[in-house]
Every structure is written in structure tokens, then in C-alpha cells.
Amino acid sequence: MSNTTATPASTADADWTTGHEALLYEACGACGQRSYFRRGFCPRCGATPVDLRASERKGTVYAATAVVRAPSPEWKALAPYPLLLVDLDEGPRVMAHGTTGLAIGDRVQINFLRLGERLIPRAEPILKEEKASS
């Protein structure tokens, strides 16, 4: 299991959705459930509060598809682009853009791509030498 730390409440919003290069998830102290979408309670057992933790952002591609038609003009330059579901090593599943050529089962590192004023999670392959050390 990855070494993760609880995040203080003051940094509860310091993730990629607010412009910080971090991927946070909730962890339930009562049942152990780990969830990406923040709810403030455990979706499995209903316990509150839950801990907010920072992911190490490594995982495995669970599903992959390609977006051919951009949803807006700012995305048009990226199309077509891979869109992935990634199972993080800590447990939660997240959606991320990907580099071309990634397939189901590939090990990836989630980094971030800046698009205008926003950050977007982007999965990149973990190189073979990195796989051996992790």
C-alpha cells in the first residue's frame, strides 16, 4: 500500500480542481473505504468524518477510449485525445486524459496539463526502470 498522509482541513480544497498539482481522496477510518468524490461521509458505511489524503498519483489503466469531437473550442486543439479511467494504487478510480498509446493494464503516473486557466489530470506511462523501483 502507498504511503499517504492525511491532509489538514485548511488545505481541503488544495487539489487540481482549484489549481494545485495534487489529487486528493477521502478515506474512512471506520471501514477503510477510499473514495475519490468528496462527500464528507463514507459512501459505504455512512461514517463521518472521513480523512482527506493526498494520492501518490500512480495507478493502472482500467478503461480507455478516445474523444474525437471536442466539447468546446478550447479543447479542439487537443482532439482527438485519450480519456482513461485509472485505478489509483490507494484504491479510488479517477478519470484522466492520457498520452497516446496507453492501454488497459498499463501502469501510469498522473501528472497535470494546463489548459488555459485550468489544470487537467493527465496519465503518462511509467517507464520500465521506474516500474522496477516501485
In brief:
By secondary structure, the chain is mainly beta. Helix content is 7%, strand content 38%. The termini are close together.
Characterize the structure shown.
The chain has helices at 73-76, 128-133; strands at 24-27, 34-35, 51-54, 58-67, 81-88, 93-98, 107-115, 118-125. The protein is mainly beta. The protein has a domain at 58-133: OB fold (Dihydrolipoamide Acetyltransferase, E2P). It has a five-stranded mixed β-barrel. A three-stranded antiparallel β-sheet has the order 2-1-3, with no helix packed on it. Strand 7 and strand 8 (118-125) form a beta hairpin. The chain is globular. Mean pLDDT is 88; it is low at 1-10.
Layout of helices and strands:
Elements: E1 24-27, E2 34-35, E3 51-54, E4 58-67, H1 73-76, E5 81-88, E6 93-98, E7 107-115, E8 118-125, H2 128-133
Parallel strand pairs: 6-8
Antiparallel strand pairs: 1-2, 1-3, 4-5, 4-7, 5-6, 7-8
Keywords:
single chain; 134 residues; mainly beta; OB fold (Dihydrolipoamide Acetyltransferase, E2P); five-stranded mixed β-barrel; three-stranded antiparallel sheet; 8 strands; 38% strand; globular; disordered N terminus
**Element order: H for helix, E for strand:** EEEEHEEEEH
Task: Catalogue the unreliable spans.
Answer: 1-10
**What would the principal axes of the Cα set say about the shape?**
globular
Number of strands: 8
Q: Biggest sheet, in brief?
A: 5 strands, mixed, barrel
Could you say what the CATH topology of the domain at 58-133 is called? Answer: OB fold (Dihydrolipoamide Acetyltransferase, E2P)
How many angstroms separate the termini?
A: 11 Å
Which CATH architecture of the domain at 58-133 is right?
Answer: Beta Barrel
Beta-strand share of residues: 35-45%
Q: On the 0-100 scale, what is the average pLDDT? A: 88
Helix percent reads: under 10%
